[in-house]
């Protein structure tokens, strides 16, 4: 959907080490102009990891900066904006008070981004630029995007158009440093201790990463730029810098044990920046030592750039969005495969449920809800790996315990509830999982459960007897015409049983009709 004219908007970000505003003029995916950008370095992350909360003084500082950004928006005549908060707000013990004070003092609502979504926005921009503009990665070889922030580490592997792997660890650079007190950090044995600590941290992922034969590793953000400068690259205008791994290893070895103090003395870095950079360098070295890539790529792309670009791409509904969704569906299938689900049956449920969701758009099923239904269809049987009894319960916990790329935490809660109810039971406020949802989430769950049950019924025996399905609505009845040459008694009886809940939720009858000629007897 091409935009009728340039879309102008502002994206604001409250982060652990900086606050920023980016004013953007978006025409299409390849024509994004930054009208203005302002950023201020802050030490909110250090305070958060020391005290688990932000002080009143810090909240006042956040609001003061945001008021200045609002004035900048007014000067440019920008009325469309969105404010995002990442680790520093997401993990604060007094998060509600922070959000409330920001709204009271500035009138702005904060969209708090969970870690998988934070990584996802940066990945989307980086993947597009690397594959469509710079073409620095070989489409036949795997690339690892390593996203190290103050609060966590994201590892995302792709090859060509396929997304192969995605994991997130809640152990970022500042969080690692705050695991040790000041005396421990100043010890001569600290470099070895923290190296061993980080080596153990990535241990569970090391073997899995090695299976992909990764050719390139990409590190993005401020720390990537800092490391490039430490290696003598003073260029500030290039988004992408390629460096041989031996050059980076030479930098690491030159320290005889990297410490924040050595970084401060050698490069005159501020203490706060050195405390972030030191574990980032060691962790990066641990990763590349484990997988031995052929090249290292340092990218300047930040969360602010990623979300500013993504906002316009999403508003345009650019086809690239569908490519990303297909990649995320691939990852969901990889998760299901780890739990040995029936992939053929899951594919049938995904196919049928997608058809129902598309047909039912006018019944309050937006396209995004249909996408959530697809993910639920892929994951609905993962609980059977744990136990066939009460497998919906086990599936719920597996979904909630898994980072699902491209989904917000709220969307993941919806998917988890759908897989919980997909086989039996009725969504009810008497159930703790369902009761914890917002009213909008509850509506999403009830509709998607109704859809996925009739979709499952069409392959009730998991033997793919129905080759084709056509849907047609007449006089508030949804006819499901199925083409088959086999006995579908089980599918028929199961469908009739699940049709009652469908009718209750959508306010329309649904009837299964054998034959693909749309002839209703």
Automatic annotation (TrEMBL):
Kindly give the SUPFAM superfamilies that the UniProt entry links to this protein. Answer: Actin-like ATPase domain, HD-domain/PDEase-like
**What is one Pfam family matched by this protein?**
Ppx-GppA_III
* Biological classification of the source: Bacteria, Bacillati, Bacillota, Negativicutes, Veillonellales
Domain of life, source organism: Bacteria
Assigned protein family: Belongs to the GppA/Ppx family.
The residues covered by the Ppx/GppA phosphatase C-terminal domain are 333-469
TM region(s), chain numbering: none
This chain's protein is named Phosphatase
- The UniProt record lists the Ppx/GppA phosphatase N-terminal domain at 32-306
Coiled-coil ranges per UniProt: none
Q: Which Gene3D superfamilies match?
A: 3.30.420.40, Exopolyphosphatase. Domain 2 (3.30.420.150), Hypothetical protein af1432 (1.10.3210.10)
